[in-house]
Amino acid sequence: MNDENRLDEIIARYLTGVSTPEESAFIEHWFRHNGNINKPDIELSQVDKRRMLKKMHAEMEERTQKKAPFVWYAAALLTGLLLGGWGISYLLSPAPNVYTTIHTGIGEVRHTWLPDSTEIWINANTTLRYHPDFSHHRDVLLIGEALFSVKQDEEHEFLVTTPDSVSTLVLGTRFNIGSYTTEHHTTISVLSGKVKIEKTGTQLGTLTARQSLVFRQNDQTFTRSMIADTASAMGWTNGSWVYENIDAAELARLLYNQYGITLNNKTGRSLQLKTGINFNHHQSAAEIAEIFCVLANCQYRMVDEKLFELY
């Protein structure tokens, strides 16, 4: 990965609140030394520029009592270099820009509504953050998985951004997004309506009902496909997990998010089923691991109650 792509990745992680302390320190140092995110080789979109200013504004609110002057300098730099008059008016807005956070624990699925009456189901081990002035700024940051039934509002777009800086823009629709950081890909599935998808200024396309897109972080590529069964795509909301050709990495994510169990693949080979399979929350983690191993021609052992190994 070249320096520009690495910087773009760190910025995306910083914007969505998942950067490490070292990465945050790097971004702050970069701003102090006149970092310019308007360079052609970085190519941040207007959406990302707006999110960057919001992030810095949130940092200001949080650090005012700590007297961190660099934050004010960075915000001024962003305002002057990137956003002009709009940035100044936003920066001087009296409303504090502190995102509201919803977090689900291991095995927890939550059904709730956003302030604009958008209905959401939030999957286990997921963090969702949304703008405090949601009636005017329908911006959502998602780390994990959620199913959205968006309240239509033609005057205010609804934007969901994931840690890999993939942005999904809608007016009114029903769609599912899965973007766990351990999986290194983001999946957007549209059940009804239409969404537009962007990655750091690049349009990935428009999805309509029964269409899906998978963006892979490792090679920055994406594929589109049709959804055979929309009920299966949202099955996790009632504790049914439907997979097509599940591999060991997906199994590990399922066991950790739903049962708090870490799964290590010690077989030395890539394990992937060649068929569809349906698990559910009535099964134990051991039962799920055993079924997978029967079909994948491997075995598993419980090292302890929180650690399984495939061998």
UniProtKB/TrEMBL annotation:
Gene3D superfamilies: 2.60.120.1440. The keyword Membrane applies. It comes from Chitinophaga hostae. The chain crosses the membrane at residues 70-92. Pfam families: FecR (PF04773). Keywords: Membrane, Transmembrane, Transmembrane helix. Residues 101-196 form the FecR protein domain. It comes from the Bacteria. This is FecR domain-containing protein.
